[in-house]
Specification:
Blueprint (H helix, E strand, L loop, with lengths): L1 E8 L3 H12 L4 E4 L26 H14 L3 E3 L3 E5 L6 E5 L4 E9 L3 E3 L15 E2 L2 H4 L7 E5 L3 H10 L5 E5 L9 H9 L3 E4 L2 E9 L7 E9 L5 E5 L2 E4 L3 E3 L29 E3 L11 H21 L12 H5 L1
Parallel strand pairs: 1-2, 1-6, 2-3, 6-17, 8-15, 9-10, 9-15, 10-11
Antiparallel strand pairs: 4-5, 5-6, 7-16, 12-13, 13-14
Helix pairs in contact: 1-2, 1-6, 4-5
The structure holds flavin-adenine dinucleotide (FAD).
Flavin-adenine dinucleotide (FAD) binds next to helix 1, strand 7 and helix 6.
Length: 330
């Protein structure tokens, strides 16, 4: 069993930033990368709103730089997922990975993020970053003067549709039911907006695109099905923004950490979860801001709290090479 002062679960902007801070504070730090090094931001081609890159950057480049910076100060990246945690007995905490490796960590920072819910239709994955998006703040700017489709009927769909009117020529909201779930106030604003139109009782069945010579294919149209008439038809569009919900990856911690009704992690103002010494950062607790920079800022805050937490217990921490009591008795 390996022992670390800090175990960071997740390698998105929150995890890699936390690792930079704890490693630079001379604390032995392991980062469990999970299935996607860099998290969600690694899947996007253009990032124009992360400070420090006046000409923009790409998701993979941003992630590579964050990784190198954390490693430069000694953070160890382990390309495994955490499959079991035992937080209930307090620090040091036990973790197990999908490679059956066991770790003991004095503090844990959970940064396992959330995933935008997908429609799971043909063309959706293929055109992510080329016309399909789950984030209006991130990608709205690329759709200036364009015809935009928004999928969803809840608060976030309407809020984001209203935001997208700053950029698009038109915004058509497609909803599978014949009434919206969003608050009445948002409905009133959206219905009154001259750029917004609604298509009810309709689902998107496919995203289609085409490219010109030398240029990657981009979204050109969607295939729609009217659920009342069964009519299937093609509609031109330049962009498809999908807002049908988010799923935080909190299943691993159910029953151990306090979660909100929609399963985001509850934290206090020091980023500490309901267990002393366990912190959380990024989209695993934040269902509102959902940006790489806010996740990174969170990672910094969680790391500073973990550093303080360890500092206050410095005299009582076991040496890193100490044999854990249970393991010694095994
Ligand atoms: C297509 C797309 C484009 C975007 N564009 C922008 C943009 O231009 N600008 C912007 O600011 N934001 C953008 N965002 C949002 C931004 O990517 C997220 O807000 C940010 O990545 C959240 O960071 P996070 O660290 O909280 O979590 P995530 O990025 O979700 O990372 C979670 C990490 O946890 C790991 N993980 C999960 N489960 C486990 C486990 N059991 N064990 C170990 N590891 C695990 C995953 O492998 C991943 O590394 C975009 C998002 C998407 C999807």
């Amino acid at each position: 069993m390996k022992r670390e002062r800090v175990a960071i679960i997740g390698s998105g902007p929150a995890g890699l930033t936390a690792a930079l801070y704890t490693a630079r504070a001379q604390l032995s730090t392991v980062v469990f990368v999970g299935r996607l090094l860099g998290g969600q931001i690694s899947t996007t081609h253009e990032v124009e709103n992360f400070p420090g890159f006046p000409n923009g950057t790409t998701g993979p480049e941003l992630v590579e730089n964050m990784k190198l910076q954390a490693e430069k100060f000694g953070a160890k990246l382990v390309f495994e997922s955490v499959t079991e945690v035992d937080l209930t007995k307090g620090s040091p905490f036990r973790l197990k990975t999908d490679n059956d490796d066991e770790y003991l960590a004095d503090t844990v920072i959970v940064t396992i993020g959330a995933n935008p819910r997908e429609l799971q239709i043909p063309g959706e994955k293929q055109y992510v970053g080329r016309g399909v998006s789950y984030c209006a703040t991130c990608d709205g700017f690329f759709f200036r003067g364009k015809d935009i489709t928004v999928v969803g009927g809840g608060d976030s769909a309407l809020q984001e549709a209203l935001f997208l009117t700053k950029f698009g020529k038109s915004v058509n909201i497609i909803h599978r039911r014949d009434d919206l779930r969003a608050s009445i106030a948002l409905q009133t604003r959206a219905k009154a907006h001259p750029k917004i139109s609604f298509t009810y009782s309709t689902i998107v069945e496919e995203v289609k695109g085409e490219g010109s010579e030398g240029a990657p294919a981009v979204v050109k149209s969607i295939i729609l099905r009217d659920l009342k008439t069964g009519n299937v038809y093609e509609k031109p569009t330049d962009g498809v923004f999908i807002f049908v919900g988010y799923d935080p990856n909190s299943w691993l911690f159910k029953g151990q950490l306090d979660l909100s009704v929609d399963e985001y992690m509850k934290i206090d103002s020091n980023m500490q979860t309901s267990i002393d010494g366990v912190f959380a950062a990024g989209e695993i607790h934040d269902s509102v801001f959902r940006q790489a920079i806010t996740a990174a800022g969170d990672g910094c805050k969680a790391a500073l709290s973990a550093i303080k937490w360890l500092g206050e217990r410095e005299d009582t921490l076991q040496p890193l090479d100490a044999v854990p009591v249970a393991a010694a008795g095994d």
